[in-house]
Design goal:
The structure holds three protein chains of three kinds. Chain A is α/β, with parallel strands linked by helices. Helices cover 54% and strands 13% of the residues of chain A. Chain A folds into two domains: 171 residues, Periplasmic binding protein-like II (D-Maltodextrin-Binding Protein, domain 2, 3-Layer(aba) Sandwich); 206 residues, Periplasmic binding protein-like II (D-Maltodextrin-Binding Protein, domain 2, 3-Layer(aba) Sandwich), CATH 3.40.190. Chain B is mostly helical. Chain B has two domains: 61 residues, no CATH class; 207 residues, MetI-like fold, CATH 1.10.3720. The N terminus and C terminus of chain B are likely disordered. Classes of the chains: A alpha/beta, B mainly alpha, C mainly alpha.
C-alpha cells in the first residue's frame, strides 16, 4: 500500500514536472556530487558548498565515498561510468582529469568559464590542469602547499636551532637533535608520505627545472642523473632521522608526536595544520610552519571537480551553477578556511586566513613568478596514476631497505618506463 | 559425544595436570581473541585528549558515552549530519532479501545435487564451488556494465542480485555437505511411496534442515552485512549501506581523526553481526552438529 | 560413508516418471548454475579478454597480445605479491585448521564456561577488518601496543616488531587472519566432534588406545567433510585478502606485504591500468585453479566411490 501511494505521488510529481517543464521550459539545476570529503573539516567545507548550491535553487544529491585519498572513489566512479550513469560532478585531480577527458566522458564548461572570466583569475598551472583541448572540463577548489615543515618551537629551542634554509642546515639540526636524544623527524611510513618527503627533497636539491624534467617529461637522463642520486642520498639520511616505529603510521599520529614534543618536525602538506588547530594550538606560537629548504620553490596540490557528460537540462544547469559557485569568491573563502588550504582563484581577501595560509599565498605568487612552482607527484598533480605509482613504489622501497642510491635511480627510470 | 572425561579410568594425578593445561590453553587463546575487541571498546569510551596523550592500549580513565551518541545520531557523513542511524535501515533492506533468496536457492541446489544425482552433478558442484574464489575486485567492472544493461544500476535490487550471486557458492557448499550425510534410504523409501521431488524436499529434507539453515543464514548475513566494496560501487548517496557510511565517517584523507567516534561507529556497525554470533552461536554449533549424522 | 543414489541403482520400471524426476533436479539446479556461469565464468572470460588489450582508463576491446603479461612479470612488486600469497595462504590455512581443530578438541572435554569461550573464539568472524584493523595496527605496533605494554610492566627485553620489519610484516597478516577465522573453523570441528559416535571411542579406549591415538586415528579421519569445508572457506579468504592488508600494513613497509588482490585493485583503479589489472587477476585465478582443482578432483572422485 505504501509503495503504491509512493508510486502515485511519484507519477503525479513526474507529470506535473513535465507539464511545468513544458510550460516554462526552465530547468531546475541538480547535481549528483561524488566526493571523498566525508568527515571533519572536509565535510564542513562541502556542507558550505551544498548550502550555497541550494540557496541558489539547486538540488544537491550527495554521493560520498571515502577512503585513502580517493582509492575507493576511483572504483566507484568507473562502475558508474560503465553502468551508463556517471555522477554530474566528481572530485578528481591532476592529470587524471585529462585522462578522463581523453575518453570523452567529460562535459564542457567553457561557456561558464568565459562568462566568469576564469582565464583571468586562475593561476596558469591550475588552468593547465582543468582545461583539456582548450576547453574547461573541471573546476579547481583549493590550493594546498605540500612542502611544509611543521615544527615544535620548544623542541627546536632545546638545541638552539634556527629554521633550516638548506638541506645541509636541516641535517645539522637533525644531527644535533639526535645527539640530544630527540627524534628529529616524525614520519608515517606509507608510500604517499615517503613520496611527500622525497619530492620536497627533489625540489630542494634540484630545483623546479630538474623536478619537471624528471617527473613530468620523464626524461631518463634526468632520472638517472647525479642530482637524483643526491636526492636518494638525502632520503637515506632522512631515514636515519625517523624513529623505529614509523612503518604504517598515519600522518596525523606523526603530527601528534610533534605536538607532544616527542619529535621536532614533520614534513607534510598544510592539512596538518587542521590537526594542530583541533588540539587548540596556535600557529607561530605552539607550532611553526616553515617551507622545506628550496630556492623559492613551492609544491602545489589542488583538489578539483570534473564535470561528466550528462544529458538532462536539469543536470547541465546544475553543473553550470556548481562550477560558478565553486570559483566564486565567497565560497573560495569559506571553503578554504575550513579546509586549511588557500583559494584556487587569485585575489581573494586574505584577512581571515592565519599566518601559515598567508605565507602560502605570498610564496605561491613569488614562486609562480620565479618559475619555481611545481605540481606534487605524491599527490597526483605532476604525474597521473601510473607514473605516480611507479615513483611511489621505488621511493618507498628505497626508504624501507638498504638499496643504494645508484640502484634506486636505475629502478626509478625502469619503473617509470614500465608504467606507460 | 567424544567425551573422554566420562570414560572409566579417567581419574589420576595426570588428569588434573591435564585439566590445568587445558584451561591454560583455552584461556590464553581467549585473551588472543578478545584483545582487539577490548582495545576498540576502551577507545570508544575515552575522550580525544586521553587518546592524544598517547597510551592507546590503556583502559579509559572514565566511561564516556559521548562518542557513541555522536556516532549514532550526529556525526557528519558527507553533507548530512545524521550519524549512522539512517544507513542502518538501508543495510537491513539489502541484507534480508539477499540472505533469504541465496539460502533458498542454495538449499534446492544442494538437495538436487546430492539426492537426485544426475550425470555430471559433481562437475556442476565443483564449478559452482570455484565461484568462491573469484575476487570481488575482478568482477566490479563487468558487473557495473551488466547492471547498467539490466537497468539495475544504483538500485537496491541490483545490489541484492550481486550478493545473491556471490553468496551462492557458499550456500550450495553448506547445504550440499549437509545433505550428503542424510541417509539416502529415507529418500528411496519416499520415492517408492510415489513422492516427487518437491514433496520429498518439503516433507523429508526441510524438517531436517533447520540447523544448516541457521548456519547458512548466519554466514550469509555476516558476509552481506559486512560488505563494503559492492555497497560502495553499486549504490549512491542516501541509499548506501551502513558499512559504506562507516567508511565515510572513519576515513578521512586530510582531515582530523577522532578515534573514539571511529571506534564507537565501528561497534555500532558491527552490532547486528556481533549479536547474531553471540545469540545464535549456540545454534550455530548445534546446527553444524546435527549435520553430521554419521558413525 | 553412505552411498548416494546413482542412476544405476534406480528401478527402470517407470521411465517417464524417472525422466521427469531427473529433469526436475536439473531444472532446479539450472538457475543457480546459469547465474554462476554468467557472473563467474562469463566475467572471468571478460577479464581474460581485457587482459589482452591496452585498456587503461576504461576497458577497450582491441586485441593487443600478451604485452600486459610481459609487463606484469617484469614488475618486482608483482613478484613480491605472488610470493606473499603463497606464504600467507599456506601458513594461514595450515595454522587456522590446526588451531581450530585443537581448540575444538579442547572445548570438547566438558570444560566450564564452554558457551562463553566458544563465543569469544567465534566472534571475530562477525566483524570485518574495516572495524578491527585500527585496533590490530595499534596492538602490533611496537611503539604503541604489546611491546610497549610489556616494557611498561618491566619486561624490558621483550621485542615484537614484526609489523615494522619488512621481512616479518607478512606474518602479522597471518596472525590477524588466523584470529579472524580460526574460531569459525573451531566451530565446524566442534560440531563434527559432537557428531562422532561415542560408542566407537569407548570401545577403542577400553582396548587400551591412548587419547591422542583415538583422536588422530579414529576421530579425525571421520571429519573429512569438515576439512573440505574449512579448506574452502579459508582458501577463499586467503585469495581475497584485501581489507586485511589495507587495514593492517597498507602493503608496507615498502611494498613488502602487498597481496595480489591489492596489486590488482591498485593497478585497475588507482593507476588507470585496467589491462594490467586484468592480467594480474588472471594470474591469480590460474594460481588458485592449480591448487584447488586437484583437491576438488580427488575429494569428489573419492566421494563417488566411498
Amino acid at each position: 500500500m505504501k509503495t503504491l501511494t509512493h508510486k502515485l505521488t511519484m507519477t503525479t510529481a513526474l507529470v506535473s514536472t513535465l507539464l511545468l517543464g513544458a510550460a516554462t521550459a526552465h530547468a531546475q539545476p541538480q547535481a549528483e556530487v561524488l566526493h571523498y570529503w566525508t568527515s571533519g573539516g572536509e565535510a564542513k567545507a562541502v556542507q558550505a558548498l551544498k548550502e550555497d548550491f541550494e540557496a541558489n535553487g539547486g538540488k544537491w544529491i550527495d554521493a560520498p565515498v571515502a577512503g585513502g585519498g580517493g582509492d575507493a572513489q576511483a572504483a566507484v566512479l568507473r562502475s558508474r561510468v560503465l553502468s551508463g550513469n556517471p555522477p554530474a560532478a566528481v572530485q578528481i585531480k591532476g592529470p587524471n582529469i585529462h585522462e578522463w577527458a581523453a575518453t570523452g566522458a567529460l562535459g564542457d564548461l567553457t561557456a561558464v568559464g568565459e562568462a566568469e572570466g576564469w582565464d583571468n583569475v586562475l593561476p596558469p598551472l591550475l588552468q593547465d590542469i582543468v582545461k583539456y583541448d582548450g576547453k574547461y572540463v573541471a573546476v579547481p577548489v583549493n590550493i594546498h602547499r605540500v612542502d611544509w615543515i611543521w615544527a615544535n618551537p620548544e623542541v627546536l629551542a632545546k638545541v638552539d636551532a634556527e629554521p633550516p634554509r638548506t638541506w645541509d642546515e636541516f641535517n645539522a639540526i637533525a644531527d644535533k637533535l639526535m645527539a640530544a636524544g630527540i627524534t628529529p623527524l616524525a614520519h608515517g611510513g606509507q608510500p604517499w608520505q615517503d613520496a611527500t618527503i622525497f619530492e620536497t627533497v627533489a625540489l630542494g636539491l634540484g630545483g623546479a627545472e630538474f623536478f619537471n624534467k624528471a617527473f613530468v617529461e620523464k626524461d631518463p637522463e634526468t632520472l638517472k642523473s647525479d642530482t637524483m642520486k643526491k636526492v636518494f642520498d638525502q632520503m637515506r639520511k632522512m631515514r636515519g632521522y625517523v624513529d623505529a616505529d614509523f612503518p604504517g603510521r598515519d600522518w596525523n599520529l606523526a603530527t601528534g608526536m610533534v605536538m607532544r614534543g616527542e619529535a621536532a618536525m614533520q614534513i607534510m602538506g598544510d592539512w596538518a595544520k587542521g590537526e594542530f588547530v583541533a588540539a587548540g594550538k596556535k600557529p607561530g606560537v605552539d607550532f611553526l610552519c616553515i617551507p622545506t629548504p628550496s630556492n623559492g620553490g613551492y609544491i602545489l596540490n589542488s583538489d578539483s571537480f570534473a564535470m561528466f557528460k550528462v544529458t538532462s537540462a536539469d543536470d547541465n544547469a546544475g553543473q553550470e551553477l556548481l562550477a560558478r559557485l565553486i570559483l566564486g569568491e565567497k565560497f573560495q573563502e569559506t571553503f578554504n578556511l575550513y579546509k586549511g588550504s588557500i583559494p584556487a582563484r587569485m585575489g581573494v581577501n586574505s584577512d581571515k586566513f592565519d599566518e601559515c595560509a598567508v605565507k602560502s599565498m605570498i610564496d605561491l605568487q613569488a614562486s609562480s613568478e620565479g618559475g619555481e612552482l611545481v605540481g606534487s607527484v605524491a599527490h597526483e598533480i605532476a604525474a597521473a596514476g601510473a607514473i605516480r605509482g611507479a615513483v611511489l613504489d621505488v621511493v618507498t622501497e628505497h626508504f624501507n631497505s638498504d638499496m643504494t642510491s645508484e640502484a634506486a635511480v636505475e629502478r626509478l627510470a625502469e619503473a617509470i618506463e614500465l608504467a606507460e | 559425544m567424544a567425551d573422554i572425561a566420562s570414560l572409566p579410568g579417567g581419574n589420576s594425578p595426570w588428569r588434573s595436570a591435564g585439566r590445568f593445561g587445558l584451561y591454560f590453553l583455552l584461556i590464553s587463546f581467549g585473551a588472543y581473541y578478545i584483545l582487539p575487541l577490548i582495545v576498540v571498546l576502551s577507545t570508544s569510551f575515552k575522550d580525544l585528549d586521553e587518546i592524544r596523550n598517547g597510551t592507546l592500549l590503556s583502559l579509559p580513565a572514565e566511561i564516556n558515552l559521548e562518542s557513541w551518541r555522536y556516532a549514532w545520531s550526529e556525526a557528519c557523513i558527507g553533507v548530512s549530519c545524521t550519524g549512522l542511524k539512517p544507513y542502518f535501515w538501508n543495510s537491513v533492506m539489502m541484507t534480508i532479501p539477499a540472505v533469504l533468496i541465496s539460502t533458498v536457492l542454495g538449499a534446492l541446489t544442494g538437495y538436487a545435487l546430492t539426492k537426485f544425482k544426475f550425470r555430471g552433478a559433481n562437475m556442476v558442484f565443483a564449478m559452482i564451488l570455484f565461484g568462491c574464489f573469484i575476487p570481488f575486485q575482478v568482477v566490479l567492472l563487468p558487473m557495473a556494465q551488466s547492471l547498467g544493461f539490466l537497468g539495475l544500476a544504483n538500485t537496491v535490487p541490483g545490489l541484492v542480485l550481486v550478493h545473491i550471486v556471490y553468496g551462492l557458492p557458499f550456500t550450495v557448499l553448506f547445504f550440499r555437505n549437509y545433505y550428503v550425510s542424510i541417509p539416502d534410504d529415507l529418500i528411496k523409501a519416499a520415492t517408492i511411496d510415489g513422492a516427487g521431488f518437491f514433496t520429498i524436499f518439503w516433507r523429508i529434507l526441510l524438517p531436517l534442515s533447520p540447523p544448516i539453515i541457521v548456519v547458512t543464514i548466519i554466514w550469509q548475513f555476516t558476509q552481506i552485512w559486512n560488505d563494503f566494496l559492492f555497497g560502495a560501487s553499486f549504490t549512491t548517496g542516501g541509499g548506501q549501506p551502513v558499512t559504506v557510511a562507516l567508511n565515510n565517517l572513519v576515513n578521512t584523507t586530510t582531515g582530523v581523526k577522532r578515534y573514539n567516534v571511529d571506534m564507537a561507529a565501528a561497534l555500532i556497525t558491527a552490532a547486528p553481526t556481533l549479536a547474531v554470533y553471540v545469540l545464535a552461536g549456540r545454534y550455530f554449533v548445534r546446527g553444524l552438529t546435527a549435520g553430521s549424522v554419521k558413525g | 560413508m553412505t552411498n548416494s543414489m546413482t542412476e544405476k541403482s534406480l528401478p527402470a520400471k517407470r521411465p517417464l516418471a524417472d525422466w521427469l524426476r531427473w529433469n526436475v533436479a536439473k531444472l532446479v539446479v539450472a538457475p543457480t548454475f546459469a547465474l554462476i556461469i554468467f557472473f563467474v565464468y562469463g566475467f572471468i572470460a571478460w577479464t581474460g579478454y581485457v587482459s589482452f588489450t591496452k585498456s587503461k582508463m576504461l576497458p577497450t576491446y582491441s586485441f593487443d597480445g600478451i604485452y600486459q603479461y610481459v609487463r606484469l612479470w617484469k614488475m618486482s612488486t608483482w613478484h613480491v605479491a605472488m610470493e606473499n600469497l603463497l606464504v600467507f595462504g599456506g601458513l594461514f590455512i595450515l595454522i587456522a585448521i590446526v588451531l581450530g581443530c585443537l581448540l575444538a578438541v579442547a572445548l570438547d572435554q566438558r570444560v566450564r564456561a564452554e558457551g562463553l569461550l566458544r563465543t569469544v573464539y567465534l566472534y571475530p568472524m562477525a566483524i570485518s577488518f574495516i572495524i578491527t584493523g585500527t585496533a590490530w595496527k595499534w596492538i602490533l605496533n611496537p611503539g604503541l601496543g604489546l611491546e610497549k605494554m610489556f616494557h611498561s610492566w618491566g619486561w624490558e627485553s621483550f621485542s615484537f616488531d614484526w609489523l615494522i620489519n619488512s621481512d616479518m610484516a607478512i606474518y602479522t597478516l597471518v596472525i590477524a587472519a588466523v584470529w579472524q577465522s580460526s574460531g569459525f573453523v573451531m566451530a565446524l570441528f566442534l560440531a563434527a566432534l559432537r557428531g562422532v559416535d561415542s560408542e566407537i571411542i569407548k570401545a577403542a579406549y577400553l582396548d587400551g588406545a591412548s587419547l591422542s591415538r583415538i583422536y588422530l586415528v579414529i576421530i579425525l579421519p571421520t571429519l573429512r567433510p569438515v576439512f573440505l569445508s574449512s579448506f574452502f572457506i579459508l582458501a577463499h579468504m586467503a585469495v581475497k585478502s584485501f581489507d586485511l592488508v589495507v587495514a593492517l600494513t597498507g602493503g608496507g613497509p615498502g611494498n613488502s606485504s602487498i597481496m595480489p588482490a591489492n596489486f590488482m585493485y591498485e593497478m585497475t583503479f588507482r593507476r588507470n591500468q585496467i589491462g594490467l589489472g586484468a592480467a594480474s587477476a588472471m594470474m591469480m585465478l590460474a594460481t588458485v585453479m592449480a591448487i584447488v582443482i586437484p583437491y576438488l578432483y580427488s575429494e569428489l572422485r573419492e566421494r563417488k566411490h566411498g
